[in-house]
Amino acid sequence: MQKLAIQGGSRLNGEVRISGAKNAALPILCASLLTSEPLQLANVPDLNDVATMRKLLQQMGISIEVNGGQVVLSAAHIDKLEAPYDMVKTMRAAILVLGPLVARFGEARVSLPGGCAIGSRPVDLHIKGLQTMGAEIHIEHGYIHAKAKRLKGARIFFDLVSVTGTENLMMAATLADGVTVLENAAREPEVVDLAHCLIAMGARIDGVGSDTITITGVKKLHGTSHRIMPDRIESGTFLVAATATGGSIALTDTRADILDNVLEKLQEAGATIQVSGSTISLQMNKRPKAVNVRTAPYPAFPTDMQAQFMAMNCIAEGSAMVVETIFENRFMHVQELRRLGAQIDVEGNTAVIRGCAQLEGAAIMATDLRASACLIIAGLVAQGETIIDRIYHLDRGYEHIEAKLSQLGADIRRLK
Ligand code: UD1
User: Fold this and answer.
1) Stretch 326-352: mean pLDDT, rounded?
2) Mutation to probe ligand 1, out of 96, 160, 194, 398 (largest number of atoms < 8 A from CB)
3) Cα–chain-centroid distance for residue 208?
4) What is the mean pLDDT of residues 258-282?
């Protein structure tokens, strides 16, 4: 199993290009199922999750051409309306084929995702939404089997804000008969990016970026070309790493407008931030101050940045409280950070971190995608060598991370 070896103590300095967003690319790849015409995508990141999604779509019969970040998908012919367990269990986002398949082909068999490291993460809202739109759904042998001659527009209220739930039902509603209103919908920028792609494909969608999205179904969608938005979580991760190491970096091809909350927190920690067009520059020349964080749906602080801020708080001046309100088991990195000497107490969904002057390198283990990023940041600031095991989580969601960090001056190597 591959590991990362990090020699702590280098400040991050220099410029790095931000990749396309994983969480926008995954639903947008699935949107190709909604039309028989080619969908041309640009800025698709080179990630394991993207490769898994491509494989799943290819297994269904979609033809895919890849040329770097350019991907052309054609779902002119589909021979299998199924997402098997071995794919859904490695990548929950595979559930995103459910809505498009039922909408265009009237049927889908998608494995239930089962548990995952950061909580039970059910898909009941996806299922209930499709039922409200008239789909007949049976759960059999661990699979969701959905059927509908043509989905019907409906009013759907989400009890909880769900990002992929909103995306799945929004895609399904584009081809439904009549008007669908999604209430308490997710406002994440990735939902907006998907909506822009769907609109370019001929979908009629209003209220994008608000908590009420109205979709008027059309008979057919057509092909288009779309550029995937920049990854705000990758951007945030590099900015936290630079703040924690006391560095000076510039991120290019990114967007500051979707990072408001994260940028504010980094300024509170003491970083100086400048934005010029699609470039974000950050300077930090002192020990960071501890900052409190409370995760919540967009536009509040993202749960996908919680672990990275926890790492920074471990070496910050003062104490901070980190509250996780989205996932019930997203503190698995705490145990590993403690192995580096971090002072963290956890009570329910709240972690209290007392900043210490120095962490010490040790052997640790990545438990999920964002926890891996957190452990890298901790390794960068720790004294001596940190070895991170199980980094396959990292390759699911960060494009060429060790190459990018090396480019910024980090001493980081992959051990094969
Ligand atoms: C997406 C992101 C993930 C991010 C998360 C929250 C993608 C591919 N992944 O995941 O990176 O951490 O949003 O911002 O975009 N829930 C239910 N029933 C459902 C659906 C969700 O109870 O049917 C619960 C979940 O268990 C969780 C909360 O709702 O507690 C939010 O989950 P959700 O927004 O659906 O997360 P994902 O879309 O899976």
Assistant:
1) 95
2) 160
3) 19
4) 97
